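Troubleshooting log. The previous structure file for this entry was overwritten by mistake, so regenerating from the original sequence record. Sequence copied from the archived sheet and checked twice against the printout by T.R.
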Amino acid sequence: MPAPKLNQTVTAVRNELRWPSLITTIAICLLYFLLPERLTFGPTWLVPALTLLLLIPTAVAHRIAKHNANFVLGCAMLSLVTAGLCWSLWMLISALLAKALRPDQLLRSAVALWISNILVFASWYWRLDSGGPHRRESSKKHGDSAFLFPQMTLPQGSPLCEPNWKPDFVDYLFLAFNTSTAFSPTDVPVLDRWAKALMMIQSSISLATVAILAARAINIL
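Regenerated output below.
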């Protein structure tokens, strides 16, 4: 395949890979329905409904190339699901101390919140790093990235990395997964303070949910 056509194909694939962020948001909403109403802010459907209402104009703004509007709406949507996540975690801890949930509800809720934590913060990193996906894609440099991915340290023309490599959503998902499991970014150094702050919040949420699971397991034993 000629080089120009190959570059066009890579660009098209990258553009399509932005859509998993929307799919991730829908997955977060579905996970929210696994929580008992005691753990949700208002009725169980409230946060998912508000999130989907913001998701529609966010997707439209992306489709019509209104990148600034897409960025603002996306951040508003993520702020909503992050607030819902933190609220549910606080209520879960309260329910654990009060023994207000059945064991199956407690374990199901902790697992749902742990998975949601990964998806939410992967979306945050993807949306905020280097000014967002559009600015990141159009930039020719990696200098303003908050995360130093291994591919960024390779010399130009290295066979281990495609030309003009840029991180996609799956790279940030992998970063968020490592942060929630190892409580560290593993192979990706963190450079900016805002990213360090977000990773501390994500690790704290993950640690709290793992502690809940451990507490329940000890109680069972």
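Residues 3-17 have pLDDT under 50 and may be disordered. Archived copy saved in two places this time.
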